């Protein structure tokens, strides 16, 4: 992998949040979009932005939707309710537990059995206020769900989307966050890097929030690596930031006092799950090959531009007014971190065959 040139704009999380929430770019129209004949899957589709996205996809005439969620009760109810709203569509619930590699692999095998799969939106994510180690893997739970299991699912779905999409390249959209581009990343200095995420040292609400932000950064690093080994003509892979959104379960685990203190700001600045869902559809439907390997935020495509002579990727100067990627991803140190993380991830997930095939 070559390095990425041109540094990311140095902005704080608050500056970026204020710009995106209070002075957003104009959102694109979906009036001309029809999803007739396509099949889509969305993880975390039983509540929040995932459920709103499911409704939006069905309103665009999607005939077959698979909602993936951990809770059978919530997933079954969501699929049933959506089926009543859109009786011409086939809406299914499939159980997916991102705390379990076995569940992820089983889910991917079921996807491979479909006659077609055109769109996959990896929306599921958590933020745990208390430290929890995953029983089956030993990894900290937010890291497990948001990064490791999401990475495994992405890797397993890529060949399915490549071979089973009937409407051009398959589409894989990974949900990240604008917080990923400004977060501190203390784990980057450790070798190996993955075990560092399993330490409980000085865990607090602030550390829990940083852990969430870092996992979203790791997804952007994963995105870059995947886009280097997967061609856009096979599967278009991008990431999207839905914005600061109310009506989700993401903050359900934070202390009550913190929820109360956040409420006035949230009411003033937060957007709705429906608007967040619109960003997902923009990323996985409206945007084409130009979004491959890119991070979409505030309706802007923050893309790498190939430079064949230097054999590396560069950021277009025009993106400087918008969110790009974390500054570390534009440094030799960041290149080394991404290489190490990729190698450790492939080894952890036992996906050596994917790296060779790519």
From TrEMBL:
Pfam families: adh_short (PF00106). This is Uncharacterized protein. Keywords: Oxidoreductase. PANTHER family: DEHYDROGENASE_REDUCTASE FAMILY PROTEIN, PUTATIVE-RELATED, PHOSPHATIDYLINOSITOL-GLYCAN BIOSYNTHESIS CLASS F PROTEIN-RELATED. It comes from the Eukaryota. The keyword Oxidoreductase applies. The keyword Cell inner membrane does not apply. It comes from Clonostachys byssicola.
């Amino acid at each position: 992998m070559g390095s990425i040139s041109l540094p990311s704009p140095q902005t704080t999380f608050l500056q970026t949040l204020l710009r995106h929430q209070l002075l957003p770019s104009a959102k694109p129209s979906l009036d001309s979009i029809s999803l007739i004949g396509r099949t889509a899957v969305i993880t975390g589709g039983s509540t929040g932005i995932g459920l709103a996205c499911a409704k939006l996809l069905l309103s665009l005439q999607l005939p077959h939707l698979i909602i993936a969620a951990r809770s059978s009760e919530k997933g079954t109810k969501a699929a049933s309710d959506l089926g009543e709203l859109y009786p011409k569509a086939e809406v299914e619930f499939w159980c997916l537990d991102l705390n379990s590699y076995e569940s992820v692999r089983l889910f991917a095998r079921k996807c491979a059995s479909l006659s077609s799969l055109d769109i996959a939106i990896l929306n599921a994510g958590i933020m745990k206020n208390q430290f929890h180690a995953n029983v089956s893997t030993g990894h900290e739970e937010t890291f497990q769900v948001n990064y490791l299991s999401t990475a495994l699912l992405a890797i397993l779905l890529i060949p399915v989307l490549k071979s089973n999409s009937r409407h051009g390249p398959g589409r894989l959209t990974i949900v990240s966050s604008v917080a990923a581009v400004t977060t501190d990343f203390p784990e980057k200095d450790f070798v190996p890097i993955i075990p560092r995420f399993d330490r409980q040292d000085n865990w607090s609400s602030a550390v829990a929030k940083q852990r969430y932000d870092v996992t979203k950064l790791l997804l952007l690093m994963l995105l870059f690596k995947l886009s280097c080994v997967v061609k856009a003509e096979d599967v278009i892979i991008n990431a999207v930031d839905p914005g600061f959104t109310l009506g989700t379960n993401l903050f359900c685990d934070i202390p009550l006092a913190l929820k109360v203190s956040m409420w006035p700001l949230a009411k003033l600045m937060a957007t709705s799950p429906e608007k967040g869902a619109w960003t997902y559809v923009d990323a996985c439907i409206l945007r084409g090959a130009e979004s491959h390997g890119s991070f979409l935020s505030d309706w802007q495509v923050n893309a790498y531009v190939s430079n064949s002579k230097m054999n590396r990727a560069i950021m277009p100067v025009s993106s400087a007014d918008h969110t790009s990627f974390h500054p570390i991803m534009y440094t030799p140190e960041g290149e080394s971190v991404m290489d190490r993380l990729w190698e450790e991830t492939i080894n952890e997930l036992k996906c050596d065959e994917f790296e060779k095939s790519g």
